[in-house]
Amino acid sequence: MTVLFGQLFTGISIGAVLLLIALGLALTFGQMNVINMAHGEFIMAGAYTTYVLQQSITGAGLSLVVALPVAFVVAGTMGALLEVLLIRRLYARPLDTLLVTWGVSLMLQQLARDIFGSPNVQTRAPELLTGNVALPGGLTVANNRLFILVLALAAVAALTLALRLTPLGRRIRAVVQNRDLAAVSGIATSRVDRTTFFVGSGLAGLAGVALTLLGPIGPTMGTNLIIDAFLVVVVGGIGQLKGSVIVAFALGVLQATGEYLTTLSVAKVIVFVAIVAFLQWRPQGLFTLRTRSLA
Amino acid sequence: MSLFRGRRILAGAMTLVAAAAMTACGSKTTDSGGATGVTADVSGDTVKVGLLNSLSGTMAISEVTVRDAIMLAVEEINAAGGVLGRKIQPIGEDGASDWPTFAEKAEKLISEDRVAAVFGCWTSASRKAVKPVFEKNKALLFYPVQYEGLEQSPYIFYTGATTNQQIVPGLDYLKSQGAKSVYLVGSDYVFPRTANKIIKAYAAANGMTVLGEDYAPLGSTEFGTIVNKVKSSGADAVFNTLNGDSNVAFFKEYKSAGLTAAAMPVVSVSIAEEEVKGIGTQYLEGQLTAWNYYQTTPGAANSKFVAAYKAKYGADKPTSDPMEAAYVGVYLWKAMVEKAGAFDVEKVRSASDGITFEAPEGLVTVDGKTQHIAKTARIGKIGADGLITEVWNSGKPVAPDPYLKTYPWASGLS
Q1: Looking at the predicted structure, is the pLDDT value of residue B346 above 50?
Q2: Do the domain assignments include residue B394?
């Protein structure tokens, strides 16, 4: 029983990590149809931001709190720059964005290597987050994973509310649904694109901060994450935030269950087979954009 | 346009033909060279040696330190007058963490530069890639890293530990501490799988239970489930053959699951001082490692080595087992050449048996039959300062036994 709950929590926490790294992509790929291969490097930028901040802020807890908004702005700015310099010229050719942003991702990796060196670096986690909560029955829940779960859910809530309630959110939805109509209605579509990219990339930065609590920070960390992020968005249904949320947790639990019953490598195969089978059945993903409503 | 394209295709085809012809020529010359073995170029007043390490790519973090240690030995030997009156001229090549590149660079060092010996390689994959190149050319490689054993090549000297000098002592130590059960965690490639096969055979013969065995792909950073399994298994100890980054994620997860070195120690065979610095001592303090050398190993030879290394590369640079084995390799080669009185590979090989050297790890002796060396086994505990202190050693050098022939329980392995 303890093992079962332990595994369920592991699955949910894998899901939370997946959700956090896929959330920004759900916005830029899901809603804007831009295949941004450099998204993983924005995650890396967030992680390195945390590392740099720790060099000057001694308290690990304080530096983590400061890192969240700073990483959001750093990664967001990189995303906005990418949009302004390259992607805006390619909106009509979504497949070309794949090649261009892949090139950018390689350059960013090399840049990180030049600045921080190729060996991985580490951050100190706040004392509070290295422990765990002991529940009855010998079950323990790791604090760092709990923190990531809360962060992921908070980010989803904030993004959903922003898209539904704020003027910017309404403009984003308008541009996504019908760019030409939005433009003649007086919406500055290119500014909206830039802002959307800023927010989407900023969310990747947040994911980067969270990932420093779990593993190493290295130039290639983004490459390992980007595939998972794309899977979540594609299976969830392009343009559907709730699809990403459900699929992230479903894949997390499937991965954890598969891994418990078999091995990590086999579990990965199980997840991929499940995804392929699912996409045969529903090529459009779990949810599709059929109505005028969004998110 | 079509004419232009036609010409380009033609030009491309010509280039291919030319390249094929050149490759064919190249292999022909090396073949004829291979019959007698490539002789080292000692026409000047120097002798060339090759340094083959990854200076870029994922393995650079570890291999650069090995290169640094080899260079230190070369400079020391040159300052003391060289080998057989000749100064060593090192020729460095970058294997770039890519196994075909290792083979290509090995061929270049042997055939073009005509080096007397090559020092380098780290992963078993890179060693397996260059092995046929050295055997074909009858050239010498000094390989400095602990490995999975079950190998022996007439043209490779293994200066790192083989399994009976690292893994078996690690298990003996656990057994002596009363560990009745172990859990095996490793990266999914040749070294951990072979090591775990050996561990399972050992456990079966020594009344130890292996409660589980899990592999994570190289570079994997998701250890939630594996740590859950380890925790619920209730094992007395964990034997860790994870390599690289994965260790960081594994030990972070281990700590946040509430597992401690006191309650369930982890013995690692791929984490040395350099890696400890990278992973973070707060996650590793109190955990165990199995090696033949630590920066803290007592003795005058080691004090001299550590001081010289820090003077050359910086006070914050730790020394580690693979670095020490690489450093020792250069000195062993020098001793073999001097005993043989020549740089000729076959003469050096036949002179190798019984060569000894006062290494930083203590006295080492070359076993001419297996071309491995006798080394003292050491179990260490990671301290808060990132250094590793010895908690047990084998007392005397352990003779190499790459195929574990002296262990009855290992009879079914090779």
Answers
A1: yes
A2: yes
Position B16 in a domain:
no
Residue B181 touches partner A, C-beta closer than 8 Å: no
**Which residue of chain A comes nearest to B282, CA vs CA?**
A124
Residue B226: which domain range?
164-297+379-410
Residues of A in contact with B278 (CB under 8 A): 119-122, 216
Tell me how far CA of residue B341 lies from CA of B85, B213, B351, in angstroms: 11, 50, 9
- State how far the alpha carbon of A139 is from the alpha carbons of A10, A13, A14, A203, A250, in Å: 12, 15, 17, 31, 22
Cβ–Cβ under 8 Å, residues A23 and A231: no
The answer on B148 and B207 residing in a single domain is: no
CATH number of the domain at B213, please: 3.40.50.2300
Q: Please compute the mean of the pLDDT values over residues B19-33 and round it to a whole number.
A: 41
List the single best residue of B56, B59, B63, B225 to mutate versus A (max A Cβ within 10 A).
Answer: B225
On whether both B202 and B106 belong to a single domain, the answer is no
Decide if B36 is inside a domain: no
pLDDT in tens, B31-90: 334 445 667 777 788 999 999 999 887 777 789 999 999 999 999 999 999 999 999 999
With an 8 Å Cβ cutoff, is B385 touching chain A? Answer: no
Residue ranges of E strands in B12-161: 46-53, 87-94, 118-120, 141-143, 156-158
